[in-house]
Give the backbone structure.
Amino acid sequence: MLDELRQTIASKEARLAVIGLGYVGLPVACAFARIGFNVLGVEVARQRVDTINAGNSPITGMEPGLQELVAEVVASGKLRATWDYEELGDRDVILICVETPVDEHDLPNYEALRSALEALGTVMKAGALVIIESTVAPGTTRDVVLPLLEASSGKRLNQGFYLGNCPERVMPGKLLANIRNVSRVIGGMTPETAQTMQVLYRHIVSAELDLTDCITAELVKTVENTYRDVQIAFANEMALICEKVGGDVWKVRELVNKSPGRMMLMPGAGVGGHCIPKDPWLLAYSVRTSDIDLRMIPAARSVNKSMPVHMVELLEAALKSEGKQLYGSQILVLGYTYLEDSDDIRNSPSQDVVKILEDRAAIVTIYDPYVASYKGSLLEKASGCEAVVVMVRHKEYRALDLKSLASVMKTPLMIDGRAVFREEEACKAGMSYWGLGKSGEAV
Ligand SMILES: NC(=O)c1ccc[n+]([C@@H]2O[C@H](COP(=O)([O-])OP(=O)(O)OC[C@H]3O[C@@H](n4cnc5c(N)ncnc54)[C@H](O)[C@@H]3O)[C@@H](O)[C@H]2O)c1
């Protein structure tokens, strides 16, 4: 049965489905549809289904090529979206791309994954190949996905269906390019399943495909994101040290990275998005019942989670230096997404900053060109403000005329959490500049 499936995948006759049409699922569905596969997208958010079927991308940040590609593959009939799981009954390969967040206790919340698998199992055709692209805790494909699919379908693994795990490695802003150019780890429940998956992904990925088992694929994905979180936490802690001793972390980083083998990342106002803040917890979850005492993962998370708090501390110190206080001050927050030039606001550090400021009775105004409720005129929003807090590195901010900004503010104070502006240019424009990682002895 698997040999036959492999042939229909090779000839692009296999009928594909993608469950969950978000940042991961939509570009993947489009990538397969573009090269001729018939792709059905299953999505619970009905508005998203309507938007896609009208030929539009619901992702509104800078996403090169995606809008055009959605229009193209919907018009050609190669991609169609639906909310109706019944339509999955004739699909040969099903990719699962639903969200996998953690809950308030940092434990995996697999509600979306479970409900997708339960609904899929009741209609899944014999011999289908199911691939988990969502990021999951190591062991999840074996211990959660497999039993759920067997129970809901009444079929047995490697007899009635096949199962694999191929974690996605995209970044918003480069979704289509990443799918094509970034290597992938392909985990199969058997080597033959991994080989079949390889035939599938070879159609859309030009980079290396590394074949392995599911546990390794799950480990690689969660380890690579945990690595990033730990590295960012290191940079953030160095920023705090530089502030205290009167250094400039940006300069220090530049010089450190001239030393062989050093690749210090950039510090910043916090870590957000759907992945980096939760994937370390998914990794940690996999050893929850063992006696291993994890120290680095929680420490890194704690450092990174504290950065929005630190931004408010910097703001307070800056205000104090002008004889002002946070209470009742009007503050402009620049950027509400977690990433530059993206519309993704999930877990954005700005949300934490805004909450802290509001709890402290500051009057908060937000400007973000990618978030519908925070668009408008930056200068109008800045008018009468005591300070501007830069949280995101949107390209548009770089073009900002700082002189005009300073002229409309009540107190021209800037707290820059992403090194968007240079201290000299801000000062030249008449602003007092406080940069993360370079505020000397002030805090
Ligand atoms: N966003 C990224 O950059 C990125 C990168 C790599 C991996 N991932 C991983 O990929 C997965 C998806 O992330 P995302 O950013 O695309 O999430 P997302 O929230 O943008 O997309 C998930 C989509 O699934 C839909 N959905 C939820 N339950 C469903 C169900 N039962 N049936 C059908 N549709 C359902 C949601 O409505 C949503 O549109 C996560 O596990 C994430 O960790 C994300």
Q: What stands out?
A: Residues 19-25, 42-45, 48, 97-100, 112, 115-116, 134-135, 168, 170-172, 274-275 surround nicotinamide-adenine-dinucleotide (CB under 6 Å). The radius of gyration is 24 Å. The first helix runs from residue 2 to 10.
